[in-house]
Amino acid sequence: MAVESQPLVSVVTPVYNGEKYLAQCIESVVAQTYENWEYVIVNNCSTDGSLEIIQRYAGQDPRIRICNNDEFLSQMQNWNRAMRQISPASKYCKVVHADDWLFPDCLSQMVALAEAHPSVGIVSAYRLDENRVNLDGLPYPSTVTPGREIGRAVLRGGLHLFGSPTSLLVRSDLVREREKFYDESAVGADTQVCFDLLHRSDFGFVHQVLTYTRRHNESVTSLTHRFNIRRVGRLVRLLEYGPTYLDRQEYERRLARVLDGHYNFLARSVLELREKAFWDYHRGVLRDLGYPMSLVKLIKALLWRLLNLRDAANAVKRGLKRRRGYDLGEQEGVLSAILTQENDEL
User: Fold this and answer.
1) Averaging pLDDT over each range in 149-158, 172-181, 271-280, 321-330, which range is the top one?
2) Per residue in 123-140, pLDDT tens?
3) pTM for the full model?
4) Torsion of CA 153, 156, 162, 164, to 10 degrees
5) Which pLDDT tens digit goes with each residue over 31-71?
6) Exposed, middle or buried, 266 (CB in 10 Å: 0-12/13-18/19+)?
7) Of 234, 102, 112, whose CA–CA distance to 166 is shortest?
8) pLDDT at 2
């Protein structure tokens, strides 16, 4: 059991109807070679067999603690509630989502690095993302990098190191000092918080595959792909953190490039016959960010797209295929959504 000389690690899993993979997730925590952990599982009013699974494992290991929500919370609200349940004695916090798992040496390797380098606020590692390894890019054996350098490299588009919350170990004092660890209104809140923390702490990296991420959450994943929310998140983070991590010229160049890339994506979306809801979303987001969608820029990007007839034809084919999966009623008004003018801007 726990070795008291080791710092306590709070492992956290927020759960809503996760019975399909939950047992595998819990077993990966119980199997850790690092033993001084508590495991807080927050059940968000699950209606499947999740609670029974949690109770079975909690009855076998006293380090597992169950927290049942009295009322159903949104995903981000439940994530924040889970982070607030960590022990006051814990030194590190490790999230593992109910459909992910940890490899046996995950905690021992991440904690060892953090213990050796007190300036480190976040520890990451390679991960198995379904069937491929990613979160690579840092040269071996770089184990500690100043947080500002990591933030700068990520914003410039050169590195992908954060992954999902399952990929990271965070110092518990950094969790406790935030009333809400994740900004519940933010696009990509789990990535945003990394930029907040790295502004004043270093980044640790273990050059081993330590976590597994499953991409099976159909409701979230389909919406993310349907509207390409990750692309929006990239722009949001650049606008918010670019002035902090990049110098003025770097920021302006990067912003121009990201905006050009966004219009290239939108031009492809025209050819793919995206539905009205898609255009309403992107038009609203860009307007709220202070960069209303420009019809001139969209047409220019579309003309460049049309120069490659094969790519344009393939985009139209993808659009026709995608439309079969949506309610045809949603397709009405697509052109009007694209062409609606607001002060000569979309």
Assistant:
1) 172-181
2) 999 999 999 999 998 999
3) 0.84
4) 180
5) 999 999 999 999 999 999 999 999 999 999 999 999 999 99
6) buried
7) 102
8) 46
The structure tokens 């139209």 sit at: 316
Residues 119 and 14: their CA atoms lie apart, in Å, by 28
The Cα-based distances of 260 to 229, 237, 301 in angstroms read 17, 16, 8
Percent helix, percent strand, percent coil in the chain, to nearest 5: 50, 15, 35
Residue with tokens 């006293």: 62
Q: Give Cα separations from 226 to 143, 151, 193, 295, 340 (angstroms).
A: 37, 28, 24, 22, 21
Q: In this structure, what token pair is assigned to residue 146?
A: 């100043």
The token pair that represents 88 in the structure block: 């006051």
Spatial distance between the Cα atoms of 306 and 178, rounded to a whole number of angstroms: 48
Q: How far is CA 99 from CA 65, 140, 292, in A?
A: 18, 30, 38
CATH for 9-216? Answer: 3.90.550.10
CA-CA-CA-CA torsion for 93, 91, 176, 75, nearest 10 degrees?
Answer: 10
The amino acid that residue 316 corresponds to is V
Beta bridge partners of 126: 209
Is-contact 177 219, C-beta < 8 A? Answer: no
Query: Could you give the residue range(s) of every CATH 3.90.550.10 domain in the chain?
Result: 9-216
